[in-house]
Prior knowledge:
CATH class: Mainly Beta
Strand content: over 45%
CATH superfamily: Acid Proteases
Number of domains: 1
Distance between the termini: 39 Å
Number of strands: 11
Order of helices and strands: HEEEEEEEEEEHE
Amino acid sequence: xxxxxxxxxxxxxxxxxxxxxxxxxxxxxxxxxxxxxxxxxxxxxxxxxxxxxxxxxxxxxxxxxxxxxxxxxxxxxxxxxxxxxxxxxxxxxxxxxxxxxxxxxxxxxxxxxxxxxxxxxxxxxxxxxxxxxxxxxxxxxxxxxxxxxxxxxxxxx
Length: 157
């Protein structure tokens, strides 16, 4: 096999549009509209923090996600509290969780900060740490990994 015959990393990456529907299966959240943002380092989910607690020696955080006309009560292993700089330049201390994230047919563990995104159009933002080595972003399209939502073949959105 010559060098030309070997697939390169870009050929193995899936392509996402600038917005996709995603799922956080361990949190019971499915079909969440997400903004794909390679300019943001960390992914972020709109949540109201309820409490921090320990179970079997591990730190957890309990929170609520208001989405789809319902209040979803969730809990996840609390990985860290970090200073995250938002798009307006302000640094906020946020809880960071690690949970499976599903985009299209690919499910992987992702670090996601919990923040107040009530003023944002999308309840979840997918940052470049989650995209790295998995996806290419085509900013001229939407819903490329979302069955039934994508454009007809050859059509731009």
